[in-house]
Structure formats: structure tokens, C-alpha cells
Amino acid sequence: NTVNNVERRLGAAVPGVLCVWATALFAAWTYYQVVSLAGQLLLPTCLWITVAAALITDTWRVNNAAGEEPLYPYKGAVTTQFWFMAK
Prior knowledge:
The protein is mainly α. The chain has helices at residues 2-6, 13-34, 36-41, 43-62. The two termini are 23 Å apart.
């Protein structure tokens, strides 16, 4: 969240959310094979993560018209400072 919202490295969030999406789908499918109700109960979560993945990917696409933002984490010029580490 800090990488995406504070440091504005939008590309690094895309592979992360896609990994979470794939994991949720795999969990739903695996649970469905054991107890179908358990897999069905995970479907709203999968749907929500699908919407979140689409929004994050589109945010990166819209803000990356010049093609300068990669899809991997990198060290940017912004220094993150947390409230509990303030001097």
C-alpha cells in the first residue's frame, strides 16, 4: 500500500494484486473440490479481488502513458517515513 499510494510506484502493485487474485481463485477451486459450499463462499472475495485488480491495472495503464513506469519494484527518489519513526 505504501509503494502504491505514498511512493506512487503504481507498476509494482500490478503483479502483487495479480498474485493475490490467482491465490484466491486457487483457494476457492481447491475448497470447492472438498466442500462445495466452502468454495462458493469464497466467490464474493474472488469477485472483489477481480474488481480491485482491474482498477489497479487500469490506474497503472492510465498513469503510464509515456511507458516509464515498470511492472517491477525499484528504488525511487521518494523516502518513506512512517508516523511511528518520526523524529
